[in-house]
Every structure is written in C-alpha cells, then in structure tokens.
Amino acid sequence: MANLGQLEGGSFLVIGRAGMDLYADPPGTRLEDATQFTAALGGSSANIAAGLCRQGCDAALVTRVSDDAVGRFCLAQLDAYGVDRRFVAVEGGEARNSLAIVETRATDTQAVLYRHRAADFEMVEADVTALSYHAYSALITTGTVLAAQPSRDACFAAFDQACAAGLPLVFDVDYRPYSWTSQEEAAEVYARAAALCDIVIGNDVEFGVMAGDHDAGLETARALVAGGARVVVYKMGEKGAVTITPEGEMRTGIYRSQAIKPTGAGDGFMAGFLAGLADGHDVAEAVARGSAAAALVVSRVGCAPAMPTAAEIDRFRATTEMTPPA
User: Fold this and answer.
1) 149 in a structural domain
2) How many CA atoms lie within 13 A of 24 on its CB side?
3) Helical (H) or strand (E) element with 212
4) What does the H/E/C string look like for 113-175?
5) Which residues, 6+ apart, have CB-to-CB distance to 147 below 8 Å?
6) What does the pLDDT look like over 49-79, one tens digit per residue?
7) Which of these, 72, 224, 249, 312, is most buried using a 10 Å CB contact count?
8) CA distances from 229 to 109, 184, 214, 284 (A)
9) Residue 326: inside a domain, yes or no?
10) Cα 57 from chain centroid (whole Å)
C-alpha cells in the first residue's frame, strides 16, 4: 500500500462523472409544482473535485461528457470551479450526460435522474493509460464509475497505473442502485475495488451492499483494514462514523446544521477529509473537517455550489460542537 504522506502534495486525480443538476426553485418547491429551476454542476466525482479546489487543493477530472449543450455546460462549470478538465473527453453519437432534477427539501426529497446511455460510462482504457500519474498525490474514484462497461475496466486500468506510480488509491463506495444490473454484481465489483484501495469511505448501507448483508457491513470495513487498507470510514448518518485504521477504531459524532436537503453530504465529507489530510492534519482531524463540510453542504442549495472553503469550515467549527459519538 502507498504512503498516505503523499496526500500532502494536495494534487488529486479524480475519475468519474460530471453532470447537470436542476434544482426546483425557490427552495422547498416540489418538482411537480415547479415553474423554474436553478442549474448547477453535479455528479459525485465532479462535486468532490470542486470541493477539493474550493479548499485550496488541485484536482483534475477524468471522464467523458456528451457532445451537446449539457456537456458543454459541465465543461464550463468545471472551469469555473478551477477543476483541470484536460482529461475530459467528448463522446458523440447518442451518448448523453447525466441529468438530475431534484428538490431542495429536508424531508421526503424527490429526485428524478436520467442516466440512459450515460456519456461517462463510455470512458475507455485509452483515456487513463497515458496520464502522468506521477504528477499527482492520489487517485480518487467513486463507485458509480464501476457500474457499467467500458468505464469499469478503464477504472481498474487506472488503479493499476496509479499503483505502479506509487499513488494512494481512494474509493468512495457511492452506491446508486439504479446504475447496477443487480446488487450482487455491485457487491462483487465493490469488494474487488475496495481490496485494492488505501482509503475507503462509505455509509452503512453501502458497506452492507459490499458485504452482501447489511448486518455485516462494519465487519467488512474492519476486514479491509486487516487486509491492508490504511483508513476506512464507516458512516452511519446521524449516529456519526466509525473510522478504522491499523492502529485501532475511533467513533465520532456529527456536526448539526440547518439542513435544507439531504444530498451532497458524502461528496462534501470526502472533499473535506482529503483536504484535511493534504493540509497535514491527522486522521481524526481530517474526519472532523469532513464532517463539518458535510454539515455545511446540506445547509445550502446544490452540491458543487455548496462545497465550503477551508475558512468556512474553520468558522463553522469555531461556533458548532460535534455531537457525542453514538
């Protein structure tokens, strides 16, 4: 496994989708009642990359976008957040960018997602084999990349290249049932990916899917560390998280905020956590920063636009205490 000290270089290569999110406007409006929408950059990998850039890191995205106005919107948004998109290819033909139409509502939130012939799933091994992995501090991927071919094989090829370059591998499980043909397939592929990675982050449902049994999720997380992973974060929503390292386990609570939606918390956590490690903080402090970032994201409209800066995380933590661990 790679040396996590490399993360202090603060330059991340992120694999996965960029999409367009349309939020019913104003906040609180149900989709069926909406007459106007606010557009924003979306897609878990793009959100993480944007969050890293907001916190002073460098991030480059590897994916494909559609050769149409929605794809060009995503490219323009990546530019606006400072995400390096030199490795974002344009996919023609009938491929289309992912589109999410969602509500800004704290409860009973509705979301309609369009992923038919998704452009990001068309990423191929040639998209990842020529990259200069030595120029980066770590490789990050999300589970959505692995849900279909040829992007699955491209992602594993990127893992091989990154390992050869000595980069830490970071995996956000990011289970989206609608992307998979079956939960059993997801479990098999996730287990294969997680076994290769230095840092694995997911929630209790996602680890349960990986285990093939919800009640076995935490033991699966522990087994990853026993097998060589350096950090595994098992998130449990309002109950906090269990962070597992070779040195032991740490339970933490959460930061509460005035949540206006449930979406984006995981992407915010990942960006805050990795930016914390990049700044030289230890794992406990990085978890706290990730938790604070998640709390801020759910209190704001959008996902990428909601990603906080490092200064905003500091101000929030100065006035908000973390809840005791469950």
Assistant:
1) yes
2) 20
3) none
4) EECCCEHHHHCCCHHHHCCCHHHCCEEEEEHHHHHCCCHHHHHHHHHHHHHHCCCCEEEECCC
5) 121, 176, 179, 180, 186, 189
6) 999 999 999 999 999 999 999 999 999 999 9
7) 224
8) 35, 23, 21, 16
9) no
10) 15
The rounded distance, in Å, linking the Cα atoms of 234 and 240 is 9
As a whole number of angstroms, the distance between CA 236 and CA 238 comes to 6
Q: Does residue 325 lie within any of the structural domains?
A: no
| Under 8 Å between Cβ of 234 and 251 | no
Euclidean distance between CA atoms 253 and 178, whole angstroms: 30
What six digits make up the tokens of 295?
């709390």
Looking at residue 273, its pLDDT comes to: 98
Which structural domain range is residue 106 located in? Answer: 4-319
Count CB atoms within 10 A of the CB of residue 72.
Answer: 14
pLDDT digits (tens, 9 = 90+) for 93-103: 999 999 999 99
Q: Is the model's pLDDT at 1 over the cut of 80?
A: no
Pairwise CA distance, residues 111 & 261, whole Å: 11
DSSP letter for 101, please: E
For helices 44-54 and 69-81, angle between their N-to-C axes, nearest 10 degrees: 20
User: Does 13 have pLDDT greater than 90?
Assistant: yes
Residues 245, 249: Cα–Cα separation, whole Å: 6
Question: CATH code at 60?
Answer: 3.40.1190.20
User: Quick one: 238 exposed, middle or buried, by C-beta within 10 A (0-12, 13-18, 19+)?
Assistant: exposed
Q: Give CA angle at 239 (146, 235), nearest 5°.
A: 20
